[in-house]
Each structure stands twice: as structure tokens, then as C-alpha cells.
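re: that chain from earlier
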Amino acid sequence: MSMLFLSKLLPLLFAPLGIALLLGLWALLALIHAQYRRSALGFGLVWLALWLMATPAVNQWLRQPLEWRHLPVAVEESPSAQAIVVLGGAVSGQEFPRKSLDLSAQADRLFHAARLFKAGKAPVVVATGGFLPWDNFRRPEAEAMALVLRELGVPGEAILLENRSANTWENARRTKALLDPLGLNRILLVTSALHMERASRTFRHLGFEVIVSTTDVETVSRKTAWPFRFLPDATVLASSTSALKEMAGLLYYRARGWLS
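^ sequence. v structure.
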């Protein structure tokens, strides 16, 4: 529990808002102590950090090296495997006042997994994702994912649930425990392009033969026109935050020895 909490908390310190809050606190303390030049520097750095991270130019510079490391492959050109493993983060449950499931920006994962299955690339789909212990013990995400997969044409008997994991390491470890007794080791791993480097290396570290099957690519070759590449945008700030958190996740997993 404590290590899980730490793994979720530490990346926030690498996020633009986390950095800005720390710099702002430093600037405020300097102002209280009449250190006006230091305070002005701190507030200036807050402005600069938020502005840069909210620009399309910096966002693409951050995301593209990770997203383009594992480029998507057309479904019909994908190799076959023994199982399709689709990672969580794509759907939220039917909680009040919702009347249906809520698909996130990463819902491409579910559509891609369904396409792979219907193309005959593997006989089973593993939906993996639980819930965080402090998240009111809501319904595991894997169960919500299975509902969407069935709506997309994947029969219920072809869906396996791994519904106890709370992060990528647990995704891999618990999926290993689920598939090993079935003799399934060669997998098509489906997740977002930004997440694929960490996910694929984690699954390989635990002995899986991984075929990456990337989806949900945000950075494309077409660039925003000048001068809009350097104008701030709140949605771009959120995208940059995801990139920095993923970089922090890679560093953390490397330090824990969880990567191949």
C-alpha cells in the first residue's frame, strides 16, 4: 500500500503543476522574508514553466521520442499470438449519476484489441485493471472493459479478467499468474503509444514474449502552424503532464529493477 501510494505520488512532483506549486511556494517564502529579487525569480520561473509546457512545440518534443519508439502496425499486418492483453486506463465505471460506462481518451485500446481479436490474431483477450485501494473500492476496471469488449463483438467466453492490479507492474505480474497455467506466453500487448515502452519492457522482464500493438498516438508528423506552436493551451498542458509522468515512471521502474 505504501509503495503503491509512493509510486502514484512521486510522478506528481515531475508534473508542470507540481513543479509550479513548488516554485510558487519558494517564491512566496522569499516574498515573506523580503527577498524580492528571489521572489520575482521564483514567480517568473512559475510562469515560464507553465507557458512552455502548455505549448504544442514543447509538448511534441516531450512526447514524440516515447510515442514513436513503437509505431502502430495495421491490424491485418500484425503477427499472431496466443493472447491479446489490453491494459487498463480506458474506461470508468457506471457510477452515480452516470447511466452508462464512460470512455476515456485512451479508449482506442479497447477498439484496437477488439479489431485484433476479430481479425483472428489471438483466441483470447485479457482485460487487465483493478482499482486503487483509496478509490472507494469501486468496481474493477477490467469488468467495465469486458462490457465494452463484448459490445465491440468479442464474445464473453473469449475474455479473461485480471481485475486486481493497480499499476503496470501489477498488470504484468498478475497477468503472468493468470496465463501461465494456461500455457500462454506469446502476447499482443495493447496500450497507448506513450505507455508502450514501459509496459512492454515490464512484461518482457517477467518472461512474456511481447509483440507490441500500439494505439492512441497523439503526436503526428503534421506540426501546428507558426505562431500557434508557441501559444499556450490547457489541453496541451495536460498532455505534457502525461509525458513527464511517464518519464518519471520509467525512471522509477528502472530504479526498482522492473524493466528488461
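The chain is about 50% helix and 10% strand.
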